[in-house]
Amino acid sequence: MSKGSPAVLVWRFHLHFRIQHLLMIISVTLLVLTAIPLWCSRYPFSGWPADLIDLFGGLETVRLVHQGAGFLLIFAFAYHILYVLVHPTGRRDFLLMFPTKKDFADLYQNLSYFLGKSESPPRFGRFSYFEKFDYWAAFWGCFIMIGTGVILLYPQAVAAFLPPSLTNIVFGIAREAHYHEAILAALALFTWHVFNVHLKPGKFPGSMVWWHGRITWEEQEREHPLESEELKSIS
Amino acid sequence: MKKTRRKGAGLAALFSLALIVVLFLVIHQAALGEKTEPVGPDLAAPDKPPVSAPTQAVAASGSIKPSPAGVCTPFKLRDEQGQVIDPVHGVNDKVPYSPKQTCGACHNYQLITEGYHFTQGKGEALPKDFAARYNWVLFPGNYGGNWCSPAPLYRQLAPKKNTKARMIDMTSFDFVTATCGACHPGGGPMEYDRDGLRYDARMRDPAAGLTPGGDNGLDGDYFKARWSETGVIEADCLLCHLPEYDYKKRNGQLADLNFKWAATVGAGFGRVAGKVAGGEKPEVTYNRDCFDADGNVKLHLAPEPRNETCLHCHAKPGWKKRGAAFSPRTDVHLKAGLRCVDCHAAGRKAADPRIRGKEVHQFGKGDDPSGWVRDDLDNTVRQCADCHLTGYLNAPITKHEELAPVHLEKISCQACHIPWRPVKSAQVQVSDVFNTGPLISPPPKRIWTFYDPFLKYWNHYGELARFTTRDQPTDPYRPVLTWYKDKLFPVNRVHSAWPGFVEEGKPGLNQAFMKDVFLMWQKHRQDPGQYPELAKIKDDNDDGVPEVNRPEEIDAFIQSVKAYLTDTGFDLGGKTVVWVMNDRAYTSGTRWRPLPKHDFEASPYASVYKYSHDVAPAKAALGAKSCADCHSKEAPWFTAQIVAYPFGEDGQPVTVSQAEHLKYQTVPADAEPWTYWTKVFFISLTVVVMLGLIGHMLLEAWRYYRQSSGGEKSE
């Protein structure tokens, strides 16, 4: 099969990136699952939240798993930062992630296309605007959740660095940011991200690119036509 | 220049020398002072008997230096005049011995009897809050204070001056026989009147105009008293320091009004023939076996009293108040073989500088919310940390590093380490119905009805009569938790109901005499036609015991008390009879006013007892299994229902959750602006982002739908 054949597989994600993503899937799933009973601990006198805590094996177990998963996320995030700094592919992809004017134009055109006001959808490069959004949302999410999580986990150690008048403020902010950013992240992940990568027309019933890292040339041409042209020109 | 410098150096040397000399003198004086601290009786006391030659001999013997071996050198008993008692040689052997003259010959009796065990609050100023609440108290301790009962009613000490015999409930003389004397070690209010004079000496003084058994000007210390015949009860050192001391025999002497003979019999030195109560003059026959060939008394003296000694007085009230078992079965410290005095140390062994010192008999005490005696000495007891952080007496050291600091800051050690109380205590004491339970003695105690922590009727006095504190049944229960001085403590928060008086111009309440309410009920029971309203008081909760709770019952009770007191000439001028239930004073079945109280109290007129004894092994503590011991649905820490009022109108208890009582918030506070705005920011962000994403997805799906339904041509 020649390069232009639709069934030919194209490398999309590097092994390092897929490992990072897999670590994120595991850690974030565990974090979200254990966060539900932990959230329930805010309402210790209500019936079903307490039942839920018991269902998960008690508050102590839940907390232990949540903290363990948190450390896994920290590891995944650190791995990614290292990948971006050291690995050429990581560096290249990271630079391609920065938003450009074209992304905003693409968004406009895409919405027009959805509304039937444009004949064709925008032609994306290696990363579409919604993929970039996903990336930066995850980046911001890791930053906020890890930062506030560490504050919540080690209040004494953190307090040692803070002026006493600020401790309660910082703890309050950390607590609220952690709780609410968690909800935003979980909602975005399980609706938007899952929809875009698995459920939307053309993807359903699901993509395995997160596992083997490859997509078909057909997909490549349809979803990243500008990158395809680039690939063709290089080859 | 050189000369000036030399002169300066000389002056400095002279100054230094002077300083050294002064320092030496000061230190030497201090050391000397320690060695020559006063010994022997304080003969300058106002009650000082006429100084006779033998007394001077005692005073001289007072300067005898203590044995370097640290034990008492052989000594002879002495009588109240300081004269030697020598039964071996038949010298002065019919009179009782005097602990004051005998032990006080070498030891500082004055200093020792300043201890609160002896004074029982006598002479101590009333704390302001205490005085404002209780109109009947005169001192903060058992003597003239709130007695050893968890709640009113109880006997009350008459003021020094009285205008009517009917208004005297208990004099200082009655205090001895009203069961108080059974535990009181003597000295303090058992020896001196409220003017600081020795009772017997004053009564014998013709100038005082006092007669035994007379009205004696309705003096609260001398009304109907017979001090000149009974003698006084000096501080009985052997009551604590002689392990074989016989309390029963001693108390038998007190009941016979042989006050000054009690110490001789209690110590087993001899027997006494004759009773002051029977109009006789008692005489001692000393037991020769107690003396050596020289006439010195042979004694087994324990410098640190044994646990049984303390428990002789503390076991019974400890059971009633705290369900204290004081046994190795229930207490990890007793299992480890500790002595009471290891923690409640006095003298040189005391942990706290406030009470440390030779012969100082202020025992290390805790801080009971309802105890008012010597509050300045609160927490002089050796605290948990004093041993468990230092390893004192080989205590296991623990730091709880794994616990978030808030636990140690806000929760007392006891709260987790006494998760269960093994033996039940009185959680409710009502003094408004007649307790018909078996074996309650003496009869006036029938005015008390106790309920246990399960709100079940508890015949405590029946149990005391039928068996001993060693046979306490096992009824485990979770203690109530409460905030006290910014920490959480497990407590017995006693609830009470009793008849009292609102008095004009006074903020607090007064109580009816215990005997009056008892007699009222007794008369009604003998003749239901008397105080017939009492018949309206029924059992509403089917536990077999009537209780005052419904409005008509409250009215019936108030009216009956008022009628009885009026009939018996009790002075009700300026007084309104009320029925007090926890923090409410009812003037009728439907009208009541709230009584100010602390959150830790169920009632301003019922005690709150902190639990500190019967500590569980560390592995049984809350949190030893997991955090879920407290932080879970089942954890009583939050969810337990605790009693707010023992009887609602239906006779059932009114309860609140433990969390509600502790004022726990169920969700974290977000009143702080930074927290609030962080929350607002993230919620807004979530709404905006999610609306955008959902809109994007819907539009995409819509486009696909239109395309696939043939509306538009696919690309």
Portion in helices of chain A: over 70%
- Distance between the first and last residues' Cα of chain B: 114 Å
Percent in strands of chain B? 5-15%
Structural class based on helices, strands and sheet pairing of chain A: mainly alpha
In CATH terms, what is the fold-level topology of chain A?
Fumarate Reductase Cytochrome B subunit
Number of DSSP helical runs of chain A: 11
Count of the domains of chain A: 1
Mean pLDDT of chain A: 88
CATH homologous superfamily title of chain A: Transmembrane di-heme cytochromes, Chain C
Kindly describe this structure:
The complex is a heterodimer of chains A (235) and B (715). Chain A has 235 residues and is mainly alpha-helical. Chain A has helices at residues 15-40, 47-55, 59-86, 88-97, 101-114, 129-153, 155-159, 164-199, 209-212, 217-223, 225-234; strands at 9-11, 214-216. Chain A has one domain (10-234): Fumarate Reductase Cytochrome B subunit (Up-down Bundle). Chain A has a two-stranded antiparallel sheet with strand order 1-2. In chain A, helix 3 packs across helix 4. The longest helix of chain A has 36 residues, at 164-199. The mean pLDDT of chain A is 88. Chain B folds into four domains: 77-290, no CATH class; 304-423 and 476-494 and 607-624, no CATH class; 443-471 and 495-605, no CATH class; 676-715. Chain B is 30% helix and 10% strand. Chain B has 24 helices and 17 strands. Classes of the chains: A mainly alpha (235), B alpha+beta (715). At the A-B interface, helix 2, helix 3, helix 5 and helix 8 of A face helix 24 of B.
